[in-house]
Amino acid sequence: VSPRHDESKVDVTEIYSGPRVAPQAPRYGLKPGSSIDLTTCDEYGRPWDLSLPVMQKHARKRIQQERPTLLIGSIMCRDFCQMMRINWPRMPAHEKVRRLQQARAHLAFVCSLYLEQARNSRYFLHEQPQQATSWEEPCVQRLVKVTKAEKLLIHMCQYGMTTITPDQRTLPVKK
């Protein structure tokens, strides 16, 4: 689907991501949008706590106003990662249920934003590790089916993404 560039106010907006991609946009002649994340604040100085329905509504309105050509979602994959398959049996059942409910709520919210992007002939990028169990979640499966989205494997280390180890070494990220 070809985006309606004339209707987009910005080229790229990030959600569940601190300022990573949007600040780099001008280097490529692109107009940056917001970086909506718990580590950033809205125009009133409130952290973007997307676990709160009021902040989700505010974020949705901001994205609707910006009409980004590309919406990048980098939802936390902690509770969907491979290591959790090892940790879940060691955790009290009620804690696993609570954490998965929260993680699924965030995932459902971001998928609803992606669907809105697609309905408006704009793009989305869902950034998650290849082995994350979030790819198996019903809302992601519906998203892929409805939008005919493609899943691509890209190793971010080739774009310079790094991480700092506990002993302060910088290593490339395979994400």
Provide a brief overview of the structure:
With about 180 residues, this protein is α/β, with parallel strands linked by helices. The protein is built from 4 helices and 6 strands. Strand 5 and strand 6 form a beta hairpin.
Kindly describe this structure.
- A hairpin with a 5-residue loop joins strand 5 (162-164) and strand 6 (170-172).
- It is built from four helices and six strands; from the N terminus they run E-E-H-E-H-H-E-H-E-E.
- The model has no long low-confidence stretch (mean pLDDT 89).
- Helix 3 (93-119) runs parallel beside helix 4.
- It is of the alpha/beta class and 175 residues long.
- The chain has helices spanning 53-66, 82-87, 93-119, 138-147, and strands spanning 12-15, 32-36, 70-73, 123-126, 162-164, 170-172.
- 33% of the residues lie in helices and 13% in strands.
- The strands form two sheets. The protein has a four-stranded parallel sheet, covered by helices on one side. A two-stranded antiparallel ribbon has the order 5-6.
Show the helix and strand layout.
Elements: E1 12-15, E2 32-36, H1 53-66, E3 70-73, H2 82-87, H3 93-119, E4 123-126, H4 138-147, E5 162-164, E6 170-172
Parallel strand pairs: 1-2, 1-3, 3-4
Antiparallel strand pairs: 5-6
Helix pairs in contact: 3-4
Comma- or semicolon-separated keywords:
single chain, 175 residues, alpha/beta, 4-stranded parallel β-sheet, two-stranded antiparallel sheet, globular
Spatial arrangement of strands, main beta sheet: 2-1-3-4
- Biggest sheet features: 4 strands, parallel
Q: Indicate the overall shape.
A: globular
Report how far apart the termini are. Answer: 27 Å
pLDDT < 50 stretches? none
Rg value: 17 Å
SS elements, strand count = 6
Q: Mean of residue pLDDT?
A: 89
Please report the number of helical segments: 4
**Secondary structure category:** alpha/beta
Please report which band the strand proportion falls in: under 5%, 5-15%, 15-25%, 25-35%, 35-45% or over 45%: 5-15%
The portion of residues assigned to helices is 25-40%
Order of helices and strands: EEHEHHEHEE
